[in-house]
């Protein structure tokens, strides 16, 4: 075998290993979906616990009013929850809009914290730490500033965590509010259903673990106090705090009936900026937690560490290597005897990709359509390929932050 053959075989093995892992997660997630469809959400026994909902916001004037109004309309007893909006060093009209809502409903527990460049402006984690100092709830819920949760969302999260002492947090599902705005938002909608909530369902079914998604989740106040709040260096504060919850011996459960709707990027430029931030944040968490691979007390979460390592490093390198070798082979610069086999496996991978996602879409009302088949195929050859660029650029930015010791800051996602 030539060196090209060896490299190709290694790349193919790595890609297919991860592909089969994701197939297993989809199958397990689908089984969990069937189970939860036929089950009722637990009832809250006794007095409802007091909950603090925190909304970190930076220049969110376009969406913040709708978000706060939806939180005020939750079907949770109004005297048993408070809403804290951390309007963090905003330069738009957010403070004015929030003030109007507050004045219209003075009887409600709505707290507005307006920070400046001295106290705030240092990222979502810092804003959450500021909000937490004012909180009173025994449970802490987080919603992003562009979210409109369904009326039952909070109650379902609370019911789950109050009925199981082994749970440190419970996460819900988030859906794409503007899915029909562009082809990109249709891609994001499919990605959200397939790689976000179905993968989360699969991981809960197989390992009784999930990763906090950053919005529409609830956690115990005692956990936040024990870990000293959010890591201000972490851009992906959701993934980072998930690992710390794991290490405390708690589990994180996924409750798909708790739903929030969020606005997604409508242009490639905004999407690319958002996703590279996510990639950079997750790489920070991976590097920070690599030592746990050798910690016996972290045995239960090694899958997550290895999974993230594989996605952001092994898969990226394997995809780039295999694609490059196939292109160079077609151009006659290198010769590989397994190019035909690689092409066949590539085609088979596409089929598995399409079938897996289509099965996922059958679990959502309004998503089951044959027209989605061409969207999925187009997504594979465009959207999914852009992921490699996102992961590589995220790694590049992470290394720049490490070298130049840059502080975390708000990375604003444009709203519409």
Span between N and C termini? 54 Å
Number of strands: 8
Class by helix and strand content?
alpha/beta
Query: Main sheet: which strands, in order across?
Result: 3-2-1-4-7-6-8-5
Shape: globular
Mean pLDDT: 89
Query: SSE order, as H and E?
Result: HEHEHEHEEHEHEHHEHHHHH
Structural Rg:
22 Å
Characterize the main sheet. 8 strands, mixed
Fraction of residues in H or I helices: 40-55%
Q: Please work out how many helical segments DSSP would assign.
A: 13
Assembly state (oligomeric): single chain
Please mark out the parts with pLDDT under 50 across 5 or more consecutive residues, or reply none.
none
- Beta-strand residue fraction: 5-15%
InterPro entries: Nucleotide-diphossugar_trans (IPR029044)
Protein name: Glycosyltransferase family 2 protein
Pfam family, one: Glyco_tranf_2_3
Keywords: Glycosyltransferase, Membrane, Transferase, Transmembrane, Transmembrane helix
Please give a structural write-up.
The protein has 416 residues and is of the alpha/beta class. It has helices at residues 3-37, 64-72, 94-104, 124-132, 153-162, 183-207, 221-227, 237-247, 268-289, 302-331, 339-361, 372-381, 383-404, and strands at residues 51-57, 81-88, 110-115, 139-142, 147-149, 167-176, 217-220, 251-262. Strands 3-2-1-4-7-6-8-5 form an 8-stranded mixed sheet, sandwiched between helices. The mean pLDDT is 89. It comes from Paenibacillus sonchi.
């Amino acid at each position: 075998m030539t060196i090209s053959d060896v490299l190709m075989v290694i790349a193919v093995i790595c890609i297919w290993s991860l592909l089969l892992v994701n197939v297993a997660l989809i199958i397990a997630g689908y089984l969990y979906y069937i189970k939860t469809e036929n089950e009722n959400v637990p009832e809250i026994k006794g007095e409802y616990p007091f909950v603090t909902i925190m909304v970190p916001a930076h220049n969110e004037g376009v969406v913040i009013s709708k978000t706060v109004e939806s939180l005020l309309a939750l079907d949770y007893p109004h005297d048993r929850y408070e809403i804290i909006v951390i309007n963090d060093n905003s330069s738009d009209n957010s403070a004015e809009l929030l003030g109007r809502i507050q004045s219209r409903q003075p009887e409600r527990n709505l707290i507005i914290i307006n920070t400046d460049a001295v106290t705030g402006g240092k990222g979502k984690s810092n804003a959450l730490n500021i909000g937490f100092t004012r909180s009173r709830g025994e449970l802490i819920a987080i919603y992003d500033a562009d979210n409109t949760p369904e009326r039952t969302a909070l109650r379902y999260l609370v019911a789950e965590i109050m009925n199981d002492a082994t749970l440190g947090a419970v996460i819900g599902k988030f859906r794409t509010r503007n899915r029909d705005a562009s082809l990109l938002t249709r891609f994001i909608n499919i990605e959200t259903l397939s790689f976000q909530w179905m993968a989360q369902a699969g991981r809960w079914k197989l390992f009784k673990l999930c990763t906090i998604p950053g919005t529409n989740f609830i956690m115990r106040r005692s956990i936040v106090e024990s870990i000293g709040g959010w890591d201000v260096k972490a851009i992906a504060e959701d993934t980072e705090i998930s690992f710390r919850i794991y290490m405390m011996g708690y589990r994180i459960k996924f409750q798909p009936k708790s739903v929030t709707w969020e606005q997604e990027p409508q242009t490639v430029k905004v999407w690319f900026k958002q996703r590279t931030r996510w990639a950079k944040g997750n790489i920070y968490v991976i590097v920070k937690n690599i030592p746990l691979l050798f910690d016996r007390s972290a045995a239960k979460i090694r899958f997550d560490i290895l999974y993230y390592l594989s996605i952001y490093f092994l898969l990226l390198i394997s995809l780039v290597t295999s694609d490059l070798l196939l292109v160079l082979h077609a151009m006659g610069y290198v010769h590989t005897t397994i190019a035909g086999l690689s092409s066949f496996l590539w085609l088979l991978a596409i089929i598995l990709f399409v079938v897996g996602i289509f099965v996922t879409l059958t679990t959502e009302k309004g998503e089951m359509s044959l027209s989605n088949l061409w969207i999925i195929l187009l997504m594979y050859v465009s959207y999914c390929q852009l992921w490699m660029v996102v992961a590589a650029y995220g790694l590049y930015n992470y290394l720049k932050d490490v070298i130049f010791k840059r502080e975390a800051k708000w990375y604003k996602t444009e709203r519409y």
